[in-house]
Amino acid sequence: MKRWLPQPLFSLSLWGVWLLLGNTLAPGQILLGGLLALALPLFTVRFWPDRPRLRRPLRILTYILMLLWDITVANLTVARLILHPTRKLRPAFIRLPLDLGNDFAIVVLTNTISLTPGTVSADLSLDRRSLLIHALDVDDVEQTIARIKHRYERPLQEIFAC
Amino acid sequence: MLDLLTSFFLVVGGLFALIGSIGLARLPDLFMRLHGPTKATTLGVGGILIASMLHFSSLDSGLSLHELLVALFLLITAPVSAHLIARTMIHLRGGTGTVVDEREAGPQQGGTDQR
Fold first, then answer.
1. CB-count exposure of residue B2 (10 Å: 0-12, 13-18, 19+)
2. ipTM of the assembly?
3. Does B106 touch chain A (CB under 8 A)?
4. Shortest CA distance to A16 belongs to which of A38, A33, A3, A35?
5. One pLDDT digit (tens) per residue for chain A, 162 residues
6. Shared-domain flag, residues A82 and A140
7. Most buried among A28, A124, B2, B52, using CB within 10 Å?
8. What is the full DSSP assignment across B62-115?
9. What are phi and psi of A10, to 5 degrees?
10. Are strands A130-135 and A119-124 parallel, antiparallel or unpaired?
11. CATH of residue A117
12. Structural domain containing residue A12
Protein backbone atom coordinates (compact mmCIF):
# COMPACT_ATOMS: atom_id res chain seq x y z
CA MET A 1 0.00 0.00 0.00
CA LYS A 2 2.66 2.44 1.11
CA ARG A 3 4.85 1.37 -1.77
CA TRP A 4 2.32 1.69 -4.56
CA LEU A 5 0.53 4.70 -3.18
CA PRO A 6 3.15 6.86 -1.46
CA GLN A 7 1.02 10.02 -1.36
CA PRO A 8 -2.67 9.14 -1.29
CA LEU A 9 -3.84 12.73 -0.95
CA PHE A 10 -1.58 13.91 -3.79
CA SER A 11 -2.95 11.12 -5.99
CA LEU A 12 -6.49 12.08 -5.12
CA SER A 13 -5.94 15.74 -5.98
CA LEU A 14 -4.20 14.82 -9.25
CA TRP A 15 -7.18 12.71 -10.18
CA GLY A 16 -9.54 15.53 -9.28
CA VAL A 17 -7.55 18.06 -11.29
CA TRP A 18 -7.47 15.73 -14.31
CA LEU A 19 -11.23 15.26 -14.31
CA LEU A 20 -11.82 18.97 -13.78
CA LEU A 21 -9.44 19.85 -16.62
CA GLY A 22 -11.40 17.61 -18.96
CA ASN A 23 -14.64 18.80 -17.37
CA THR A 24 -15.98 15.30 -17.80
CA LEU A 25 -16.93 12.14 -15.97
CA ALA A 26 -16.56 9.82 -18.97
CA PRO A 27 -15.38 6.33 -17.90
CA GLY A 28 -12.30 6.52 -20.13
CA GLN A 29 -11.16 9.77 -18.55
CA ILE A 30 -11.79 8.42 -15.06
CA LEU A 31 -9.61 5.43 -15.86
CA LEU A 32 -6.85 7.47 -17.52
CA GLY A 33 -6.87 10.01 -14.70
CA GLY A 34 -6.71 7.22 -12.16
CA LEU A 35 -3.69 5.68 -13.90
CA LEU A 36 -1.91 9.03 -14.02
CA ALA A 37 -2.76 9.67 -10.39
CA LEU A 38 -1.13 6.37 -9.53
CA ALA A 39 1.90 6.76 -11.78
CA LEU A 40 2.91 10.39 -11.19
CA PRO A 41 3.46 10.15 -7.41
CA LEU A 42 5.43 6.96 -7.95
CA PHE A 43 7.79 8.65 -10.38
CA THR A 44 8.11 11.93 -8.50
CA VAL A 45 8.31 10.63 -4.94
CA ARG A 46 12.08 11.03 -4.86
CA PHE A 47 11.80 14.75 -5.60
CA TRP A 48 9.98 15.31 -2.32
CA PRO A 49 12.72 15.14 0.27
CA ASP A 50 10.65 16.28 3.24
CA ARG A 51 7.04 16.12 2.29
CA PRO A 52 4.63 17.33 4.90
CA ARG A 53 2.99 14.71 7.06
CA LEU A 54 -0.69 15.28 7.39
CA ARG A 55 -1.96 14.44 10.79
CA ARG A 56 -5.55 15.51 10.44
CA PRO A 57 -6.56 15.60 6.76
CA LEU A 58 -10.22 16.31 7.47
CA ARG A 59 -9.25 19.49 9.26
CA ILE A 60 -8.18 20.79 5.81
CA LEU A 61 -11.80 20.98 4.73
CA THR A 62 -12.84 23.19 7.62
CA TYR A 63 -9.73 25.28 7.04
CA ILE A 64 -10.64 25.81 3.38
CA LEU A 65 -14.22 26.71 4.21
CA MET A 66 -13.05 29.20 6.82
CA LEU A 67 -10.55 30.59 4.32
CA LEU A 68 -13.22 31.08 1.63
CA TRP A 69 -15.39 32.95 4.11
CA ASP A 70 -12.47 35.08 5.24
CA ILE A 71 -11.56 35.88 1.64
CA THR A 72 -15.07 37.20 1.07
CA VAL A 73 -14.85 39.32 4.21
CA ALA A 74 -11.38 40.48 3.19
CA ASN A 75 -12.69 41.66 -0.15
CA LEU A 76 -15.45 43.67 1.44
CA THR A 77 -13.03 45.17 3.96
CA VAL A 78 -10.48 46.19 1.36
CA ALA A 79 -13.19 47.48 -0.98
CA ARG A 80 -14.49 49.67 1.85
CA LEU A 81 -11.01 50.94 2.66
CA ILE A 82 -10.34 51.76 -0.99
CA LEU A 83 -13.61 53.59 -1.52
CA HIS A 84 -13.51 55.76 1.59
CA PRO A 85 -11.34 58.71 0.70
CA THR A 86 -11.95 60.57 3.95
CA ARG A 87 -10.78 57.73 6.13
CA LYS A 88 -7.12 57.96 7.04
CA LEU A 89 -5.34 54.67 6.46
CA ARG A 90 -2.69 53.57 8.91
CA PRO A 91 -0.45 51.14 7.03
CA ALA A 92 2.23 49.32 8.97
CA PHE A 93 4.80 46.57 8.73
CA ILE A 94 4.29 43.83 11.27
CA ARG A 95 6.75 41.13 12.21
CA LEU A 96 5.00 37.86 12.91
CA PRO A 97 7.00 35.25 14.83
CA LEU A 98 6.50 31.83 13.26
CA ASP A 99 6.00 28.58 15.15
CA LEU A 100 5.62 26.38 12.06
CA GLY A 101 8.42 23.92 11.48
CA ASN A 102 7.52 22.82 7.96
CA ASP A 103 8.21 24.71 4.74
CA PHE A 104 4.97 23.70 3.12
CA ALA A 105 2.97 24.83 6.14
CA ILE A 106 4.77 28.19 6.03
CA VAL A 107 3.85 28.58 2.36
CA VAL A 108 0.21 27.88 3.13
CA LEU A 109 0.26 30.40 5.98
CA THR A 110 1.94 33.01 3.79
CA ASN A 111 -0.69 32.61 1.09
CA THR A 112 -3.46 32.69 3.65
CA ILE A 113 -2.18 35.95 5.10
CA SER A 114 -2.07 37.55 1.67
CA LEU A 115 -5.64 36.52 0.95
CA THR A 116 -7.21 37.61 4.22
CA PRO A 117 -8.33 40.99 5.56
CA GLY A 118 -5.92 43.86 5.14
CA THR A 119 -2.64 41.96 5.20
CA VAL A 120 -0.07 40.98 2.57
CA SER A 121 2.94 38.88 3.43
CA ALA A 122 6.08 40.65 2.32
CA ASP A 123 9.18 38.79 3.38
CA LEU A 124 10.25 35.64 5.16
CA SER A 125 13.32 35.90 7.34
CA LEU A 126 16.30 33.79 6.32
CA ASP A 127 16.02 31.51 9.32
CA ARG A 128 12.28 31.00 8.69
CA ARG A 129 11.42 32.13 12.17
CA SER A 130 9.52 35.29 11.36
CA LEU A 131 7.38 36.69 8.60
CA LEU A 132 7.18 40.34 7.60
CA ILE A 133 3.62 41.42 6.91
CA HIS A 134 2.30 44.62 5.44
CA ALA A 135 -1.08 45.66 6.78
CA LEU A 136 -3.26 48.24 5.09
CA ASP A 137 -4.95 49.63 8.18
CA VAL A 138 -3.93 48.63 11.70
CA ASP A 139 -5.48 49.55 15.01
CA ASP A 140 -3.50 47.30 17.24
CA VAL A 141 -0.42 45.39 16.13
CA GLU A 142 -0.56 42.89 18.99
CA GLN A 143 -4.16 42.11 18.25
CA THR A 144 -3.48 41.53 14.55
CA ILE A 145 -0.64 39.13 15.39
CA ALA A 146 -2.78 37.30 17.93
CA ARG A 147 -5.60 36.94 15.42
CA ILE A 148 -3.36 35.47 12.73
CA LYS A 149 -1.71 33.08 15.16
CA HIS A 150 -4.96 31.93 16.63
CA ARG A 151 -7.05 31.72 13.47
CA TYR A 152 -4.59 30.40 10.91
CA GLU A 153 -1.35 29.23 12.44
CA ARG A 154 -2.88 27.00 15.11
CA PRO A 155 -5.05 25.00 12.66
CA LEU A 156 -2.08 24.62 10.29
CA GLN A 157 0.00 23.27 13.13
CA GLU A 158 -2.68 20.71 13.79
CA ILE A 159 -3.01 19.76 10.14
CA PHE A 160 0.67 19.39 9.36
CA ALA A 161 1.78 18.08 12.72
CA CYS A 162 4.64 20.49 13.17
CA MET B 1 -34.36 33.01 -13.11
CA LEU B 2 -30.98 31.43 -13.65
CA ASP B 3 -30.10 34.21 -16.04
CA LEU B 4 -30.84 36.71 -13.31
CA LEU B 5 -28.55 34.89 -10.92
CA THR B 6 -25.84 34.66 -13.56
CA SER B 7 -26.00 38.35 -14.31
CA PHE B 8 -26.00 39.15 -10.59
CA PHE B 9 -22.72 37.30 -10.13
CA LEU B 10 -21.29 38.89 -13.27
CA VAL B 11 -22.10 42.36 -12.00
CA VAL B 12 -20.75 41.65 -8.51
CA GLY B 13 -17.58 40.18 -10.00
CA GLY B 14 -17.12 43.11 -12.34
CA LEU B 15 -17.70 45.55 -9.50
CA PHE B 16 -15.02 44.02 -7.33
CA ALA B 17 -12.56 43.85 -10.20
CA LEU B 18 -13.24 47.55 -10.76
CA ILE B 19 -12.74 48.39 -7.08
CA GLY B 20 -9.50 46.45 -7.07
CA SER B 21 -8.28 48.43 -10.06
CA ILE B 22 -9.34 51.72 -8.48
CA GLY B 23 -7.37 50.72 -5.41
CA LEU B 24 -4.38 49.97 -7.58
CA ALA B 25 -4.62 53.43 -9.10
CA ARG B 26 -5.27 55.61 -6.08
CA LEU B 27 -3.61 54.07 -3.04
CA PRO B 28 -0.50 56.09 -2.21
CA ASP B 29 2.41 53.63 -2.10
CA LEU B 30 3.49 50.35 -3.61
CA PHE B 31 2.84 48.20 -0.56
CA MET B 32 -0.67 49.53 -0.13
CA ARG B 33 -1.35 49.08 -3.81
CA LEU B 34 -0.66 45.39 -3.47
CA HIS B 35 -3.78 45.02 -1.35
CA GLY B 36 -6.07 45.90 -4.24
CA PRO B 37 -5.11 43.18 -6.70
CA THR B 38 -4.59 40.43 -4.09
CA LYS B 39 -8.00 40.82 -2.48
CA ALA B 40 -10.65 42.65 -4.41
CA THR B 41 -9.65 40.98 -7.64
CA THR B 42 -9.95 37.53 -6.09
CA LEU B 43 -13.61 38.05 -5.39
CA GLY B 44 -14.00 39.76 -8.76
CA VAL B 45 -12.74 36.79 -10.68
CA GLY B 46 -14.58 34.50 -8.24
CA GLY B 47 -17.90 36.12 -9.05
CA ILE B 48 -17.33 35.85 -12.78
CA LEU B 49 -16.34 32.18 -12.40
CA ILE B 50 -19.51 31.41 -10.43
CA ALA B 51 -21.51 33.08 -13.18
CA SER B 52 -19.68 30.98 -15.76
CA MET B 53 -20.36 27.78 -13.83
CA LEU B 54 -24.05 28.60 -13.53
CA HIS B 55 -24.39 29.52 -17.18
CA PHE B 56 -22.57 26.59 -18.71
CA SER B 57 -24.07 24.08 -16.29
CA SER B 58 -27.52 25.15 -17.43
CA LEU B 59 -26.66 24.34 -21.05
CA ASP B 60 -27.04 20.84 -22.45
CA SER B 61 -23.46 19.77 -21.94
CA GLY B 62 -24.01 19.05 -18.25
CA LEU B 63 -22.27 20.20 -15.12
CA SER B 64 -19.37 22.57 -15.70
CA LEU B 65 -16.86 22.59 -12.89
CA HIS B 66 -13.48 23.33 -14.42
CA GLU B 67 -13.86 26.93 -13.31
CA LEU B 68 -12.93 25.57 -9.89
CA LEU B 69 -9.44 24.98 -11.26
CA VAL B 70 -9.13 28.60 -12.37
CA ALA B 71 -10.13 29.70 -8.87
CA LEU B 72 -7.67 27.28 -7.30
CA PHE B 73 -4.73 28.43 -9.41
CA LEU B 74 -5.64 32.06 -8.85
CA LEU B 75 -5.70 31.56 -5.09
CA ILE B 76 -2.29 29.96 -5.27
CA THR B 77 -0.59 32.40 -7.64
CA ALA B 78 -1.97 35.83 -6.66
CA PRO B 79 -0.39 35.88 -3.18
CA VAL B 80 2.87 34.52 -4.55
CA SER B 81 3.26 37.32 -7.07
CA ALA B 82 2.26 39.91 -4.46
CA HIS B 83 4.84 38.46 -2.08
CA LEU B 84 7.46 38.56 -4.82
CA ILE B 85 6.77 42.21 -5.64
CA ALA B 86 6.78 43.24 -1.98
CA ARG B 87 9.97 41.35 -1.33
CA THR B 88 11.70 42.86 -4.34
CA MET B 89 10.69 46.33 -3.19
CA ILE B 90 12.00 45.76 0.32
CA HIS B 91 15.30 44.43 -0.91
CA LEU B 92 15.71 47.21 -3.46
CA ARG B 93 15.05 49.86 -0.88
CA GLY B 94 17.21 48.21 1.75
CA GLY B 95 19.87 47.40 -0.81
CA THR B 96 22.54 49.46 0.92
CA GLY B 97 21.01 49.28 4.35
CA THR B 98 19.75 46.82 6.87
CA VAL B 99 19.14 43.82 4.67
CA VAL B 100 22.71 43.55 3.51
CA ASP B 101 24.03 44.26 6.98
CA GLU B 102 21.93 41.57 8.54
CA ARG B 103 22.93 39.10 5.96
CA GLU B 104 26.58 39.79 6.54
CA ALA B 105 26.02 39.50 10.26
CA GLY B 106 24.90 35.93 9.74
CA PRO B 107 21.72 34.10 8.86
CA GLN B 108 20.65 33.70 12.48
CA GLN B 109 19.32 37.21 12.68
CA GLY B 110 17.44 37.03 9.41
CA GLY B 111 14.73 39.45 8.44
CA THR B 112 14.61 42.75 6.66
CA ASP B 113 14.25 46.39 7.39
CA GLN B 114 11.24 47.71 9.18
CA ARG B 115 9.88 51.12 8.51
1. exposed
2. 0.70
3. no
4. A33
5. 566 677 777 788 888 888 888 877 788 888 888 888 888 888 887 777 666 666 777 788 888 888 888 888 878 877 887 777 656 777 778 888 888 777 788 888 888 888 877 788 877 777 777 888 888 777 777 888 888 888 888 888 888 776
6. yes
7. A124
8. ----THHHHHHHHHHHHHHHHHHHHHHHHHHHTTTSHHHHHHHH-TTT------
9. -60, -45
10. antiparallel
11. 3.30.70
12. 8-47
Residue A3 in domain: no
A45-54: long-range pairs with CB below 8 Å, 24+ = A45/A6, A45/A7, A48/A7, A50/A102, A50/A103, A51/A7, A51/A104, A52/A102, A52/A104, A52/A105, A52/A160, A52/A162, A53/A160, A53/A161, A54/A9, A54/A159, A54/A160, A54/A161
**From CA A25, how far away is CA A31, in angstroms rounded?**
10
The structure's pTM equals 0.73
- Which residue of A60, A80, A82, A84 to mutate against B (max B Cβ within 10 Å)? A82
Interface check B26 vs A, CB under 8 A = yes
